[in-house]
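As described in the Methods, two query proteins were run sequentially through the folding procedure within a single session, without resetting any intermediate state between them. The first query and its resulting structure tokens are shown here.
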Amino acid sequence: MTDTTFYKLYSSPTSINDSSLFGNYDTTSTSKYLEPTASKSMFTGHELPLKNPSYINRNKFDFNYVFPFLIVDIIIILLLFNLYRKQSMHLALFSNKYYQQILSKSMLSYPISWLFFFVYIVNISLYIDIILRKGIFDFNIPNMEYLLPIIILLAAAFYAFKIILIYLTASIFNVPAYRRVYIDYIFLWTMSMGIFLSAYLWLEVYFNFEWLYFLFIGVWIIFGALRIITPIMKIIPKSDFNSFHFFIYLCTVEILPLIVLGKLVMLVVS
């Protein structure tokens, strides 16, 4: 081998990626770091595919801050059940038998009503906070750090406005009895939903099944229908409230607060 031939072999461009001493004689790249060719394994058919690909996306957030709220929820609910176990107020939304037991006073005068109202406000705010952080709704929220306190304030303001509106419209339409029953069932509804959400949030945070959203929507619709329909069935047959006036009243106390809440949410989001 002459010096010229040796120089050409050694200075070949392929020798840069070659692992041999004198270069690549067959002009085939023989890099040390070539990725191994993927071959089909005989065990490929035994691999377990991911059945729920959305699980990873839905669990990429840390919801450990929810745990203390859930523990306090359980403690408060158990204490309230122990103190008021004879009245069974949590069943009054579903049975007139239990509602008759509390007719002597308005739900506003029972401390348990306000405690369960507080539980409901915190729980529904936690749920909204969780689904917003998971990106279920495409909202542009600039600061997630103060999201939960803002939601709690908005939820409390919504129900405060709703109760005040019920009092005002009851005075305008001269239906004080309907006002009493309607507010009673709002508090009974918040009591039942607060208890439900206390259990539901454990599933939403730590189990995260896809059907949970449908469960929540179904329970919300059923409980909401009972809250609206039951007072109607109690009051309308005993009053001279005609259908048109009742429709206006219902729109005022149910739809107007939602419109105001929507405006507040858009202001916060924007």
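Immediately afterward, the second query was submitted; its sequence and tokens are:
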Amino acid sequence: METQEKEFYAPIIRTYNNNLSKRWRIEWEEPIRNGILTKRLVKYGFVNKGKTCEERLRFANKLIEQLKLKKKAENQRAPKKIKENILSKTLRLNHINWRKATARAYKTVTQNFTDFLGDLDPALINETTIQDYIFHLSESKASFIR
């Protein structure tokens, strides 16, 4: 089962109990490297230009909207990840534990199965699909023998 990585964590307004003598800020976290670790980011912007709590909250909300729009634009520009099927992922993760010949054989079987599936989403594979693939293999093997 595939899990989705979080792209953007909701920003938080740090108001320090609405204390106007403190510097208010916006904090949020973004994933780094593998999507599990996060990095905390802080932005002050023009939040502290407000003289009242309401003004500061208004500036903070504008800053949050700008951050969300910027992040949305970055996500649209970013290349889409190609969905990796479970067989390819298993090969990638375990090939180091296998002999070279075993890894090559598994890679060949995986490639043949992927070619057989075509555009079918790997999540939709069921028992009937696997039976069709086995029948396909037996038919293609019979054509090589003749």
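The chain has two domains: 12-77, 86-145. We note this only descriptively and draw no conclusion about the first query from it.
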